[in-house]
Structure formats: structure tokens, C-alpha cells
Design goal:
alpha/beta, 6-stranded parallel β-sheet, 3-stranded parallel β-sheet, 14 helices, 9 strands, binds 5'-deoxyadenosine, binds FE2/S2 (inorganic) cluster, 4 iron, 4 sulfur cluster binding, rSAM_sf, BATS_dom, S-adenosyl-L-methionine
């Protein structure tokens, strides 16, 4: 397996068969070998610097009904909420004081916000905080809508592809949602000029090693600036309530692989990773991740944005989350930076 990892490092890619072989033979030894190289690769571009993005979960209304997601339309047990423009700006103000220079506006696919509403919110944030990046994560929209948001000042867009395989996609989503349409959205976003984030869940129901190999090949084709991956975690009020959570080891291994495939990519150590293991996010950074996304949402709505059971950080204040993450990151020899944390095309000398 070391040969395959060396080959991946040199060529930044493997064939589908090689990925399948590698993923089917994960050992502790292979993982340690991979993580050492992945960490060194991240350090070539980022040193010991970890970027932070303040996550504002501004609506949990969603018109979609994805089988895995806790805020799916059919879950009548969640109390729905929307944040107003003023609420969102208050989150940014608090985040700015805490040193955040990227705000991620994330929500379900909520048609109540028109394109003009979204553009107005983006423009307000950019006016008040011209030194900050605005990231959107609000699902599948038309090319024209994406263009409008970009013209209003949005810099980045997160849209996980969820799974690259059309067959697997169809087992995770109701009819009407398709893998190819989702992938087209990502190509549209890239063409418009966003820094784009894709990604997928590890261990989602029915996922095979071949599916994961397809995910990796898709990421290679798309070449996103960011890649968010986290373990699938069941939510009790969804059709997937009884499926097991994805594995920590496999998620970490994939972070390492993606770091070697896309050496300067922005890779978050996700909240889901921190949920399945108390040190999950630290382990993610030690496997090659370089971004954390603390929650900036108002405390009174956090529990309502539960995509999966037992999500962490839902009882903390923004300042507590920031301090908690800072301590965790310092404890493994890394540092949080106050910076927009843009995609960086060249190696730095540190
Ligand atoms: N477990 C883990 N991740 C999930 N997401 C949605 N539901 C779950 C779940 N049950 C992820 C999806 C989505 C992102 C916002 O959260 O990948 O794109
Ligand atoms: Fe909201 Fe899937 S349930 S995007």
C-alpha cells in the first residue's frame, strides 16, 4: 500500500482500480504513512496555520427531502426558523470581533428568501466588512441566480456533490434530484468565478468502495478549491435512522488521500468528524485538514439546525466555540489565523 500512497503523492491521482485497492486495505500502518505525508504536504502550503470560517445557519426551512438530512421537508418534528437580515448582521458583528474574516451563510433550500433578499444580505455584509469573504451554502440554484449572488459580492460557494455515482445518488434522494444536475451546478459556480467547495459523506447508506473511488475521480476532474467530507451520522427522524454512522478511520484516510490529490485545497475538519469522536477535528488536522468552521449561529436556534443526531457545539456561545477550537488547535501545535484564508495557488516557504 505504501507504493500506492507514494504514487498518489507523485502523480496526484490514481486509477479507479488503484483507489479501490487502497481503500480496501486500510491498516494502521498505511494510515500513519499517509497522514505523515499528507500533513507535510499541507504544511508546505499553509505552515501550521489553520483557517477559520464562521458558520451562520440562517434558515432550517428546506423544500427538499434528502433521506439522510434532519431538516428535510418531511421532518415535522423540527421547529423551523429563519434569521432576518439584522440577525445575520449581528452574527457577523460578533464574529468579526472574534477574528473571523469569512462568513458562511448556510441554509436549507428555502424559497422564502428571494434572490434579491440574498443579494441584499451579501451586499450589506460586504459593505460593513469589506475585508471579509462571504461564502454561500444554499443549495442548487440556476446559473442566473448564482451569477447575481456573485455580482452582489459572494466570493465562495459550498455545495457538496454528496456522491458522484448517479445510482447511489438516487438511493439517497427522492426522484427529482439528480447527481448530474448537482455536478452541473458546481461547474457553473466555477465558471462564474467562485471559489468552490464540493464534498461528500463517508459511510452514507449503500455507499461502496467503488462509489468512493468515483467521488475521488470526480474531485480530480472538478478541481474544487475546497473539499468538505465528514462521516454520515444517522438522524432519528429520517428514513436512515437505523443505519450505522460512517467510520472515523475511513474519513481520516480520505482526508489524507484528498490532501495528496489536491495539495493546496482547503479541507475542513468538520463538525460531523468532531461529533463521532471527541478528538475528531484534531485528528482531521493531523490527517491533512487545514480549516475549521466554528458555529456563529445564535445559540437559541442551534439545536434546530440538527442535520444529524448529537451534533456538537449546539449549546456553546460563539466565543466559547472559538476558544474551544483555538485550544484544541494549539494543543496539537497549530495556530488559528485571522485571515480571509483564500485559496493559495503557490507553495509558501515556512
Ligand atoms: N450526516 C452527516 N452529514 C450530513 N449532511 C446532511 N445530513 C447529514 C447526516 N445525516 C451533510 C451533507 C450536506 C451538509 C450540509 O451536511 O453532506 O451537504
Ligand atoms: Fe435540505 Fe436535503 S433536506 S438539502
Amino acid at each position: 500500500m505504501k507504493n500506492l500512497i507514494d504514487k498518489l503523492q507523485k502523480q496526484r491521482a490514481l486509477s479507479k482500480e488503484e483507489f479501490v485497492l487502497l481503500l480496501g486495505n486500510i491498516t494502521e500502518e498505511a494510515s500513519e504513512y499517509l497522514f505523515d505525508i499528507a500533513r507535510a504536504t499541507a504544511q508546505k502550503y499553509f505552515g501550521n496555520r489553520i483557517y477559520v470560517r464562521g458558520l451562520i445557519e440562517f434558515t432550517n426551512y428546506c423544500k427538499n427531502d434528502c433521506y439522510y438530512c434532519g431538516i428535510r421537508r418531511s421532518n415535522h418534528k423540527v421547529e423551523r426558523y429563519r434569521l432576518s437580515r439584522e440577525d445575520i448582521l449581528a452574527c457577523c458583528s460578533q464574529g468579526y470581533k472574534l477574528g473571523f474574516r469569512t462568513f458562511v451563510l448556510q441554509g436549507g433550500e428555502d424559497l422564502k428568501y428571494t434572490d434579491d433578499d440574498i443579494c441584499g444580505i451579501i451586499a450589506d455584509i460586504k459593505k460593513n466588512y469589506p475585508d471579509c469573504a462571504v461564502t454561500l451554502s444554499i443549495g442548487e440554484k440556476s446559473y442566473e441566480s448564482y451569477l447575481k449572488y456573485h455580482e452582489a459580492g459572494a466570493d465562495r460557494y459550498l455545495l457538496r456533490h454528496e456522491t458522484a455515482s448517479p445510482q447511489h445518488y438516487a438511493r439517497l434522494h427522492p426522484k427529482g434530484l439528480s447527481a448530474l444536475e448537482r455536478q452541473q451546478c458546481l461547474y457553473n459556480l466555477k465558471q462564474i468565478g467562485y471559489q468552490v467547495g464540493a464534498g461528500f459523506m463517508v459511510g452514507s447508506p449503500y455507499q461502496t468502495v467503488e462509489d468512493i473511488a468515483e467521488d475521488l475521480l470526480f474531485l480530480k476532474r472538478l478541481e474544487p478549491h475546497m473539499v468538505g467530507i465528514g462521516p454520515f451520522i444517522p438522524h432519528k427522524e429520517t428514513p436512515f435512522a437505523d443505519f450505522p454512522a460512517g467510520s472515523l478511520e475511513l474519513t481520516l484516510f480520505l482526508i489524507g488521500i484528498i490532501r495528496l490529490m489536491l495539495p493546496n485545497a482547503l479541507i475542513p475538519a468538520t463538525t460531523a468528524l468532531g461529533t463521532i469522536h471527541p478528538k475528531g477535528r484534531e485528528m482531521g488536522i493531523l490527517a491533512g485538514a487545514n480549516v475549521v468552521m466554528p458555529n456563529l449561529s445564535p445559540v437559541n436556534v442551534r439545536k434546530k439546525y440538527e442535520l444529524y443526531d448529537n451534533k456538537i457545539c449546539t449549546g456553546e456561545e460563539a466565543a466559547e466555540c472559538k476558544m474551544c477550537l483555538q485550544n484544541r488547535i494549539n494543543s496539537i501545535g497549530y495556530q488559528i489565523v485571522v485571515d480571509r484564508g483564500d485559496f493559495c495557488p503557490v507553495e509558501i516557504n515556512v
